[in-house]
Amino acid sequence: MNAGISNATNTRRYIEKLLRKSRDMKGAVHECKLSYDSVLGSLNSALSEVREIKEYETATYDLKIASTDNIERCADAVAKGKVEDETILSGNKVVPIFGMSAYNAVDKLMH
Questions:
Q1: Domain named Pectinesterase inhibitor: which ranges (predicted)?
Q2: In whole angstroms, how far apart are CA 104 and each of 15, 17, 29, 39, 49?
């Protein structure tokens, strides 16, 4: 989870810088900022649920949401806006990998 949080944080920082510079992609990039805010919220919640309260079922839910619904908002926005920024596209590809890997690990803790 820490690696996923780190990666998503770096991508969000990049997006924030891009928002300050570029007006051309602002709509799609703004959606990505909101998407990564949600991804990070879900990943951080899951980490806390695992480490602090051992609430594995809730953690798996948060990990699944981060890996699907939250990141799909950005993926849909960049597709619709025809954004071809490699950093954003790469971030969108790895969030589900980190999230679902963590999901599988936490799911095994429940059994």
A1: 1-84
A2: 28, 33, 30, 17, 15
Q: In Å, how far are 1, 20, 36, 85 from 96, measured between CA atoms?
A: 11, 27, 12, 18
Distance CA 73, CA 68 (A): 9
Angle at which helix 71-80 crosses helix 26-51, to 10 degrees, equals 170
CATH code of 68's domain: 1.20.140.40
CB atoms within 10 A of CB 39: 32
Question: Tokens at residue 4, please?
Answer: 């996923």
**pTM assigned to the model:** 0.94
Which residue spans within the chain are E strands per DSSP?
none
Higher pLDDT, 22 or 99: 99
The per-residue pLDDT for 99 is 98
Candidates 49, 99, 27; CA nearest to 70 is 99
Look up residue 39 and give its amino acid: V
The total of structural domains in the chain comes to: 1
